[in-house]
Amino acid sequence: MRSRPVRLRSRNAAADQLTVRRHNLSVVLSHLRDRGPRSRARLAAETGLNKATVSSLVAELVDRGLVGEGEAEPATVGRPGQYIRLDGEHVVAVGAEVNIDYLSVLVLNLRGDVVSEKRLALDTARMEPALVLARLGRLLSQALKRLEKNDIRPVGLTIAVPGLVGVGTGIVHEAPNLGWTDVAVVAEIRRILGDPPYPVLLDNEANLAALAEIEGQGPDRSADLILLTGAAGIGGGVVAGGQLLRGAAGFAGEVGHMRVRAGGPRCGCGRRGCWEAAVGLNALLAAAAPEHDPVRDPSLDVEKRLAEIGNRARAGDPRVLAALTEIAHWLVVGAAILVNVFNPSLLVLGGYFAALSPWIAGSLHDELRLHVFAGDAGGTRVAFSTLGFSASARGGASQVLDHVFQDPTLVEPAGGHHPVAQEESV
Amino acid sequence: MRSRPVRLRSRNAAADQLTVRRHNLSVVLSHLRDRGPRSRARLAAETGLNKATVSSLVAELVDRGLVGEGEAEPATVGRPGQYIRLDGEHVVAVGAEVNIDYLSVLVLNLRGDVVSEKRLALDTARMEPALVLARLGRLLSQALKRLEKNDIRPVGLTIAVPGLVGVGTGIVHEAPNLGWTDVAVVAEIRRILGDPPYPVLLDNEANLAALAEIEGQGPDRSADLILLTGAAGIGGGVVAGGQLLRGAAGFAGEVGHMRVRAGGPRCGCGRRGCWEAAVGLNALLAAAAPEHDPVRDPSLDVEKRLAEIGNRARAGDPRVLAALTEIAHWLVVGAAILVNVFNPSLLVLGGYFAALSPWIAGSLHDELRLHVFAGDAGGTRVAFSTLGFSASARGGASQVLDHVFQDPTLVEPAGGHHPVAQEESV
């Protein structure tokens, strides 16, 4: 039995038909991601689409390199069926990140598995933007060449930058920790890569890290989550009511510049009192070690430097322990503001907070309860990210995959453009 | 030409059909609200529904007392047509508010016009909750009796309270400025009103005030807005990406308890440093006038007391002017945190901030620019509410109307239950 249509607003019937086809392709593809491989018959039963439609949709998804067929184990009754599953071999998404101490590139296949990952320690804050982007371009070209050699098609690239970015324009407006103002990142990377046929996007690193955390939770994800990046800057990626919070001009989540410590040290943005001046990586390092200590050398790998800080804390180094206690205190003060305002189910601490979690976790939840108005901190759980410093690059690749799951027609069929769907197979 | 259906998830065909009917009733009713009275033919052309369906939908909406017919002016060509318009005579929604210094009840008709409004000055914080609710019940009964006399049907009531509320349970968990803990507001009001046949809801006052601001903007409303209530407490109602921010447990928007002033005066919640202890009405009054000054007497009408403060400021009273300057300073410090975090297009200051706006507006926008990381304060405009102290009650009534516009079948036909829609008229 068929349900009657909910009328679409548009009065262009052809466009409506494509919209419906796209929607149904998305339903099938997302179902295979969330529920795993299954037969056409089961896809039809579970999605409510009829079998002929499912067959037509699957054929198109195969054409586009998004799903494949596999022989099933013999069924208990009847002949063995063909199983449909996501194709992990032909289509990938690329994420990249520019941060203060490193560049990174990460490739995910359609199943969300990491195909490759590369991080380069680099003191980007002391380099010209053009030089940083040239190094990122080289890192990307190497990864893309390996993909091409294996006949794997990238369907998009997202670049993460810590700062205010124009998602639509591809321009970084302001990234004080990098010292960047109005840098046309997307145009430059497109030029270096020889104007690739897929979209190249730009986004804020904290937003992308929050997406990576959400994706990592699978289909039963939190609707209300805050991810705090922990690097030189502190960014906030907020998912509220199931949506990524972007704000009117795309500048939401600038939690690092909340004034939490009147008269505190000067921030990279020029103000005093900013949260990231109290709890950013540089604040920790300045408090934990003297100026020429190698743990403060941004040309060395950040994970190795953090491991060394961890070793010193474990050995009882009083300066390091005092620095971590101070960080944990200001971390709670700012986090409590966010928990009062957003009441998330989950507050995820990423970056260096996660790397040094044994000395930061301590009484974090108890302290938070003291500072949050709602009882038991409003039910907010605190967790440490397990994605390390590649969270933003991973989120960038995830975002590209998300677009594909929402509209599988973004991926061209291997043999060229797919014919407009016939009404019979909508 | 008909578009093919987007499959609904449910496989219950009957339920789907009702869902579609409900959706289409909502489309027609909302269209009449947003675009004004018009003919059936024009409704059909503009919504994309066919004429027979529109006629059937309009007949059902007439039956439910939601729309009426009016003779149109003679058309330039052909005979005069019948116009369909929202019925403002038969269906109303009721909002009520319990706050520190007053109770209020406000009735809106379907067009959003105020049918009646009543505020009662009352020192609620010094009264037992049961007594406060008895007074509110009396105020409501009076308003409802007047409606009944005029054969006007209330379709729902929402009660606003400043504090942590259980929207689903109807219980106020914690309202420190009222001194309330775990008060079953909805159950008590239902009892007083004799268990009415319509829904009685509870919500946070700031959330409801934000809804009232959004409704006041008409169909082209802001997708990202923050409303700050200005009473003894400071509540935040946040609309982000077009959705009211509620948080995981419904406790979002507790901006009054952000720690912005270390070592500041003690807050009603027992902590120090809370924003509302620095900028709440009591902070202003304590700074502006000696203890037994009548402007500090909560049993007098708050608007009259604020008018007196305004008179003194206008006359150059140095104590009042210094108090207002101090308030404006801390207002910016907290507001900047919210603007950094949410990047709203609009920050609306309500309650006493609006009443005393001539002395608060001053350099507010310039100051905000200094404290916000994004240039030009991220484009956020500051505005003062024009809804006065009835914003929350109005938002409560608006919320009920919203439910009706989303699902017009919530309003029973005057003659009893409406028969299940026939497939032909979906």
UniProtKB/TrEMBL annotation, chains A, B:
Entries under Gene3D superfamilies matching the protein: 3.30.420.40, Winged helix-like DNA-binding domain superfamily/Winged helix DNA-binding domain
GO MF annotation: an example: DNA-binding transcription factor activity
Domain of life: Bacteria
KW Protein biosynthesis (keyword) present: no
Keywords, ordered alphabetically: Kinase, Transferase
Record InterPro entries: ATPase_NBD, HTH_MarR-typ, ROK, WH-like_DNA-bd_sf, WH_DNA-bd_sf
Limits of the HTH marR-type domain: 28-67
Protein's UniProt keywords contain Nuclease: no
Family, similarity comment: Belongs to the ROK (NagC/XylR) family.
Protein name: Putative NBD/HSP70 family sugar kinase
